[in-house]
From TrEMBL:
Sequence positions that bind Mg(2+) 2: 51-52, 130, 237
Binding site for Mg(2+) 3: 235-237
Protein's recorded name: Fructose-1,6-bisphosphate aldolase/phosphatase
Binding site for beta-D-fructose 1,6-bisphosphate: 18, 89, 102-103, 131, 245-246, 269, 290, 351
Region Disordered, annotated ranges: 362-385
UniProt binding sites for Mg(2+) 4: 236
Assigned keywords, A-Z: Carbohydrate metabolism, Gluconeogenesis, Hydrolase, Lyase, Magnesium, Metal-binding, Schiff base
Gene label: fbp
Length: 385
């Protein structure tokens, strides 16, 4: 039986800065979905991480469904009215367009959707991040589906042994490519290591891909707010849905990808590298330097239209070590203040407010005589070691 998982999220205001959602706003969003979604949805779950409200919806209308997208958009609009009433900071922040036009994509909210042939047992985990960008998923998704040191199932389980297909999007050029593991592993890594440009959008199994090319096992929201708005309007704060077990990575294998807090871009003013800290819902608020960036994992099982769960997977002492390391990394990096590589490199700062600050000095730069003008070499013409 075909079923669609649609996860749509947005920041529509928070308190006191970009720290956390406000209960009356979450309640309004939930109330709207409950009241207006009963004929559209089989089930839904409303959650949040940091200042982003997250709507997980189960239905049979397929991906990009106008009515499901409209429901989420209007729920966020209704929540924004309440956010404004309380004077929340950044009320309506991610709703970048005035009116809904058929699809929530390109309008600000992040979308991760997949239409699947539900298995007899259909467990999946929704990962939700705050204070970072879609490329933050590259490393952990690769580890889950492509790295046998993270996922021994790739070695041990005959159903996983042949590898997976990764759909990678170039979000700057608007192009995509499919590459498979293990044969294209190094090419995949060559692309997705550039995480502000190449992002993993979906993962497919090889076995089903020929017969069912749309059947995917992981999907990540790749919506980039700065590309929509043309300027910094907050970070994208991505979410992803990952199916697990029976020929796919086990729950523990997908969680294991977050057991080390690697660096992601975002954090304060969307302008800094910082550790991604796995937390339970009780710690899903942003404090130190508006972070550090956090990821929450909610585990569900789907059956016959109903969702069981969620289980708050990182609310567990087994991830205390990752959290401790994240705090140590934060201590270390913060001492660098506004310097790279804590602060993001110049290219990534293009969409922040820094260019406006530096603009006033632009005309004051004087030429330096007899100095070779520095040009970045784009292509190496000879092999270099
Ligand atoms: P169980 O035998 O407990 O179901 O475990 C199987 C498994 O997938 C562990 O990762
Ligand atoms: P959000 O995208 O989570 O609102 O973050 C904005 C910001 O600038 C935090 O410092
Ligand atoms: Mg915000
Ligand atoms: Mg946010
Ligand atoms: Mg944001
Ligand atoms: Mg068992």
């Amino acid at each position: 039986m075909k079923v669609t998982i649609s996860h749509i999220k947005a920041d529509i205001g928070s308190l006191p800065g970009h720290s956390t959602v406000f209960k009356p706003v979450v309640d309004e969003v939930e109330g709207y979905v409950k009241e207006h979604g009963s004929s559209l949805l089989k089930s839904y779950y409303i959650s949040h991480v940091g200042d982003d409200i997250q709507i997980t919806m189960i239905h049979t209308r397929g991906t990009d469904d106008e009515e499901v997208h409209r429901l989420a958009w209007e729920a966020f609009k209704a929540g924004t009215v309440v956010a404004k009433k309380y004077g929340l900071y950044g009320a309506g922040q991610d709703l970048l367009k005035d009116s809904f036009s058929g699809n929530v994509k390109g309008m600000g909210p992040g979308v991760a959707e997949m239409e699947i042939n539900a298995r007899p047992s259909e467990p999946f985990i929704v990962f939700m991040m705050d204070k970072t960008e879609p490329g933050a998923f590259n490393l952990p998704i690769f580890r889950m589906f492509g790295d046998p040191f993270n996922t021994p199932g790739l070695v041990i389980d005959p159903n996983m042994h042949e590898g997976f297909i990764f759909e990678i999007w170039d979000i700057i050029e608007g192009k995509k490519i499919k590459l498979a593991t293990p044969e294209n592993t190094y090419d995949i890594l060559g692309l997705i290591g550039s995480k502000s440009r190449y992002v993993i959008k979906r993962v497919y199994t090889k076995k089903t891909h020929e017969k069912l090319p749309d059947e995917n096992v992981a999907v990540i929201s790749t919506d980039k707010l700065s590309l929509i708005a043309g300027e910094y309007v907050g970070k994208d704060d991505p979410a992803g849905v990952v199916r697990i077990q029976s020929g796919l990575p086990a729950a523990g294998e997908v969680l294991e990808a977050f057991a080390h807090p690697y660096l992601v871009s975002g954090w304060m003013r969307g302008s800094f590298n910082g550790p991604l800290m796995p937390v339970g819902m009780k710690d899903a608020k942003m404090t130190r330097f508006d972070g550090p960036p956090r990821v929450v994992a909610l585990g569900f099982v789907y059956k016959d239209g109903a969702l069981s769960g969620p289980v708050d997977m990182f609310d567990d002492p087994a991830f205390d070590g990752a959290r401790r390391t994240a705090v140590e990394i934060a201590d270390y990096l913060r001492r660098m203040g506004p310097f790279e590589p804590h602060r993001l490199p110049e290219d990534d700062m293009e969409y922040t407010s820094l260019p406006r600050v530096l603009e006033r000095h632009k005309s004051k730069f004087e030429p330096i005589e007899d100095t070779p003008k520095g040009k970045k070499v784009k292509v190496a013409t000879t092999d270099v070691d």
